[in-house]
Amino acid sequence: MGTEVMGRWGTWEELLLGGAVLRHGTRDWNVVAAELRARIVYPYTFTPEF
Fold it and tell me: Are 48 and 19 in contact (CB under 8 A)?
């Protein structure tokens, strides 16, 4: 599995990350990562509050 460097995160990605961490906490990063992947695939169907 290769890794890609996408560049710096913008405000939108930081808000998504912060919201996911607030919802799920810092103990289960797999859940946080899964939520971020789902939201980045469809970025305009979710809000940080969702």
Answer: yes
